[in-house]
Write a structure and sequence with these properties.
alpha/beta, Aldehyde Dehydrogenase, Chain A, domain 1, seven-stranded mixed β-sheet, six-stranded mixed β-sheet, 21 strands, globular, oxidoreductase, Ald_DH_N, Ald_DH/histidinol_DH, Ald_DH_CS_GLU, Gamma-aminobutyraldehyde dehydrogenase
């Protein structure tokens, strides 16, 4: 279906575009609490993917900008890491309040640069980011080590949990605001300072996020943003000798390159990489719930989500009905202007990404059946990077559309016979970020949660996340956790402190070096 929008929606877009150009007239870098222009000598355009129109052109960061940002973060580290947990907590509470005041701007700018429907940015991206900020405001006061104890008999030991230093983080283009928050918040709540490189396609809300932190009173240099290419700015940031840790979210292929560079300087490394989430429907499942969950889980953010449902495995008694009902529901989804209230699905991030998705589907026609979708719409949507919701059936387990991350509004459906087969197929890709199991049988569902190798397994739902719970993958989906108190394991060093309690000059163990008992 097509939702054409109206003149009011176009006016909202123009207003947002004008606000962007005014707000970021001083450049798309944010270093030591001030905006700046990049010094690489090259420019880049933020493009509205729903129209193909340029929104904002800026100067890209070069190595010199990265060095300045890292120096600012390093200079801010002693004061920020030395602040009490209560002081950092208060600053983050103020930060959450500023973000709440700016919620509508954040939603409009996110929709403009990503093509997300406003209902998604207003109801998911922005509230989730504000909640995440409020969560870490509280969690900052609970960074504790192990309580003291006399483990050797003659000594008292305790554990300190300390900030690592300057964190260099790289965020992707699919959830620019939320990914900025996921990178920045646990790092600074733990006392680190940070330099974030957002995707050059989508820097706007990362910059707003950093500016809001300054407005909230977080000291200059604690949060810095450099907007440049991965080759120049990203690799310089990852390899910088004064960066103590790297956190990267993106494709598995780029993650391997990040790991290679980080390893050369022996950095702490956190990777959240690709996904190919299975959606396993057992024959006792609520079919209506599974169909609705599959369409929502596959099409969230136009399928540009590492945890999106991409491989539906349906036990054979339900398979045919699942395919037909899922196709019908997909056909009811309304593509259209992201600023129109009735739009369900916006464009992909770019025409390049749309063409990549289309190529996967076109190649699949030689070995599988495209049940619905499989094309870009015409008419007034043809200017944008739109692609119709697509359902593919009849593909083999080892085929490209089953094994590779497509990152678009494409769901592949395969049948299975026994429960053993369903779980085996679910685990049969290199990835392990997320999965879901659909069953009314608690024992069957529990088995699936135990045996599916993924960092998150939902039961009778797919996609919801909450600030209190961790997010991260297995195998080629990376390692380490975003969100929750578990993320502090990535952003803190553990130090053992040991006190002698005897006041004896000659310790008994000294005999191993000199003397006898």
């Amino acid at each position: 279906m097509h939702n054409p929008g109206n003149a009011d929606d176009a006016g909202t877009r123009r207003s947002a575009r004008d606000d962007v150009r005014t707000r970021f007239a001083d450049g798309a870098q944010y270093i030591a609490g001030r905006p700046a222009k990049g010094t690489s000598g090259r420019t880049h355009a933020v493009v509205d993917p729903s129209t193909g129109d340029e929104v904002y052109t800026y100067e890209l960061a070069g190595a010199e900008d990265v060095d300045r940002a890292v120096a600012a973060a390093r200079a801010a580290f002693p004061e920020w890491s030395g602040a009490t947990p209560g002081e950092r907590s208060e600053a983050l509470h103020r930060f959450a309040a500023v973000l709440a005041d700016q919620a509508e701007d954040l939603a409009r700018f996110e929709s403009l640069q990503c093509g997300k429907p406003l209902k998604l940015t207003r109801e998911f991206d922005v509230p989730g980011t504000i909640d995440n900020t409020a969560f870490f405001a509280g969690a900052a006061r609970h960074l504790q080590g192990q309580s003291a104890g006399e483990y050797s008999g003659d000594h008292t030991s305790y554990v300190r949990r300390e900030a690592i230093g300057v964190v260099g983080s790289i965020a992707p283009w699919n959830y620019p605001l939320q990914m900025a928050a996921w990178k920045i918040l646990p790092a600074i709540a733990a006392g680190n300072t940070i330099v974030l490189k957002p995707a050059e396609l989508t820097p706007l809300t990362s910059l707003l996020f950093a500016r809001a932190a300054t407005e909230a009173g977080i000291p200059d240099g604690v949060i810095n943003v450099v907007t440049g290419t991965g080759k120049e700015a990203g690799e310089r940031l990852v390899g910088h000798p004064d960066v103590a840790m790297t956190s990267f979210t993106g494709s598995t292929a780029v993650g391997r390159r990040v790991a290679e560079i980080a390893t050369a300087t022996v950095k702490r490394l956190h990777l959240e990489l690709g996904g190919k989430a299975p959606f396993v429907v057992f024959d006792d499942a609520d079919l209506e719930a599974a169909v609705h969950g599959a369409v929502a889980g596959a099409l969230i953010n136009t399928g540009q989500d590492c945890t999106a449902a991409t491989r539906a495995y349906v036990q054979r008694p339900l398979y045919e009905e699942f395919v037909s009902r899922t196709a019908a529901l997909m056909e009811s989804v309304r593509l259209g202007d992201p600023f129109a209230p009735g739009t369900d699905l916006g464009p992909l991030i770019s025409h390049v990404q749309r063409d990549r998705v289309a190529a996967f589907v076109d190649r699949a026609r030689s070995y599988a059946r495209v049940v619905t979708g499989g094309e870009a719409p015409g008419g007034d949507l043809a200017k944008g990077a739109y692609y119709r919701p697509t359902l593919i059936a009849g593909a083999a387990q080892d085929s490209e559309v089953v094994q590779s991350e497509i990152f678009g509004p494409v769901l592949v459906v395969l049948p299975f016979d026994s429960d053993d087969d369903g779980i085996r197929l679910a685990n049969d890709t290199p990835y392990g970020l997320a999965a879901s199991a659909w069953s009314r049988d608690v024992y069957r569902a529990n088995r699936a949660t135990r045996e599916i190798r993924a960092g998150c397994v939902w039961v009778n739902d797919h996609i919801p996340i909450i600030s209190e719970m961790p997010h991260g993958g297995y195998r080629a989906s990376g390692f380490g956790k975003d969100m929750s108190a578990y993320s502090f394991e990535e952003y803190t060093q553990i130090k053992h402190v040991m006190f002698d309690n005897t006041a004896v000059a000659r310790k008994d163990w000294h005999r191993t070096i000199f003397g006898d008992r």
